[in-house]
Amino acid sequence: MDARFTEEQSAIRRTLRELLHKHCGPDEVKAAPRTSAGYDEPLWRRLSEHLGLPGLALPARYGGVGCGPTELALACEETGRALLPSPLLATAVLAAPLIAALGFDEQRAALLPRIASGELTAALAVPGPLGAALGLTDANDGDWSGGGRAGGIQARRTGPLAAAGGTGGTGGTGGTGGTGGTDDADGACTAGWRLYGEADGVLDGHSAGVLLVAAHCGGYARSHTRLFLVEPDAPGIVRTRLTTLDETRPQARIELRDVPAMPLGDDAQQPGDLAAQLLRTGEFAAAVLAAEAVGAADFSLSSTVEYVQVREQFGRPVGSFQAVKHRLADLYVQVQAARSAAYYAAWAAGQGSPGGDGREGEGHDGGGHRDRRDEIAVAGPLALAQALEALRSAAAESVQLHGGIGFTWEHHAHLYVKRAACDDLLFGPAHRLRAQAAHRTGLFSGAVRPRSARTTAGAVA
């Protein structure tokens, strides 16, 4: 691993930081979530057109920049510093990798170039906890998408796609279906499907241009989960924006009432393919989220250090007191350790991707490949656990050391407290991330698998 940044990586960080400094200050961050989209649409277009942000990690053949997880993680470190409200996480980190990995050629060609250009946003809707579906806080080989008879989101095959009404139209998913007339028990992509159920806490689900919905199909005997493409204006769909703890991460409730849908991918997919790809997406997302949390923690720390140098108590700056110096020094070490872990996780995610160098499995014996793969697989979740703890500590100290002004709505400190708490609910908590990582690597043989806790990640109706 080469820890030095390339000139291109440094340029991405520098350019993005300058742009966000000008257009995404605390006032803009507070105002953007109150719009109907939940983010600053002109700023999103600027980031998409000038910097190619949503396509940073997408292949060039689909209109992307062709970089990797490291570049996207560095970009998200800067968006985390500013708490940028945007559909970047839902679209480029969660949805796009699944479309690229599981969609067939026509679906990828129809969706990924529009995602890379910023024209189309996407959202991943899962009926259970997002952390469990991504394999971050629990094994995702269970019935998190709903049981074989009821619950979650259920998919029902209704016949040929044309008879079901298709999914063409404004969502950009039309024209991506198969051309045959297959009508098999597993539900070929050429068959029409209807979805019924509900998903809460869907990131940017109220404004996304296309929805990726995880639904249970195959009945009780052949139970498995598939992803389906659903148009946001399809008949029978109800999208309700939720009031959330962190307004910079808009969430929605998606209700599906006999909604037409198209499977993502073709008949060659096996029931275990989705679980495996969700795991890989979870590793990638964890690395990016860790970098984002590090950026938020670093800004919270630096703004606190700057403030204690000018705030006076007993006739001298607060920052000159030894107790305050010790607290900030401990916090600095915690943030830097989290940054190192996040950078390693981003590098590791690149090794496990098609763009990696393919050497992650090298070993001196037959078990070397598996050991190296396990190490890479848990690097993201472990880095995310460390980054979430660093952000929570930095945000708490920021409020305390800012004194009375730190408790006001006018100051920016509370925004970072809310981001720390919301991310902890959405993707953590840290002890569950570590417990699942230990379970995946077999660190504690015979240990009881942690039970998943259903939560709406700080969202209420």
UniProtKB/TrEMBL annotation:
Its cofactor is FAD. InterPro entries: Acyl-CoA_Oxase/DH_mid-dom_sf, AcylCo_DH-like_C, AcylCo_DH/oxidase_C, AcylCoA_DH/ox_N, AcylCoA_DH/ox_N_sf, AcylCoA_DH/oxidase_NM_dom_sf. Residues 287-440 form the Acyl-CoA dehydrogenase/oxidase C-terminal domain. Residues 159-180, 351-372 are annotated as: Disordered. It comes from the Bacteria. Keywords: FAD, Flavoprotein, Oxidoreductase. Residues 357-372 have a biased composition (Basic and acidic residues). Belongs to the acyl-CoA dehydrogenase family. PANTHER family: ACYL-COA DEHYDROGENASE, ACYL-COA DEHYDROGENASE FADE28. This is Acyl-CoA/acyl-ACP dehydrogenase. It comes from Streptomyces humicola.
